[in-house]
Design brief:
32% of the residues lie in helices and 22% in strands. With 138 residues, the protein is α+β, with helices and mostly antiparallel strands. It is globular.
Length: 138
């Protein structure tokens, strides 16, 4: 509700996001971290510093989504990051400092798409970035 009310109140905004509490769940123990997002519109800086956390934290106006397009299904991973980036390039986005989402990460489960470095590399290459991680075996 907080994000929706903020978006209604400030009509000049194309989207609003919030901070996240990351919960690393190892089964018998949990560790916490906080996002502390800063908006950075430089291409690589955006993905390192401000990819607006997860799809559960950002709310965009319908007309904004219709203008920039929806998820790019040809992306091998991180479609929400690429969509957030397109929104930020064209519209004003606000990041609330309120922590409104707990995002659970299960490090012992390898089925997540973004746990595959190859998928992340494909994503980076599709956007024209050089790899940010060393090659396998290096």
């Amino acid at each position: 509700m907080i994000i929706l009310e903020y978006l209604k109140k400030y009509s000049e905004l194309g989207a609003v996001s919030c901070e996240v509490r990351f919960v690393y769940d190892f089964g018998d123990k949990q560790y916490f971290d906080f996002s502390n997002t800063k908006l950075d519109k430089r291409p690589l800086g955006f993905f390192v510093n401000s990819w607006l956390n997860t799809t559960s934290t950002i709310m965009a106006r319908k007309d904004v989504l219709m203008d920039v397009g929806m998820f790019d299904l040809s992306m091998p991973a991180l479609q929400e990051c690429e969509l957030s980036y397109r929104i930020c390039l064209k519209y004003k986005v606000e990041i609330l400092k309120d922590i409104l989402v707990d995002y659970y990460i299960y490090p012992n489960i390898s089925g997540q798409i973004t746990s595959s470095l190859e998928k992340v590399f494909e994503f980076q290459e599709k956007l024209g970035f050089s790899r940010c991680y060393p090659e396998k075996g290096m």
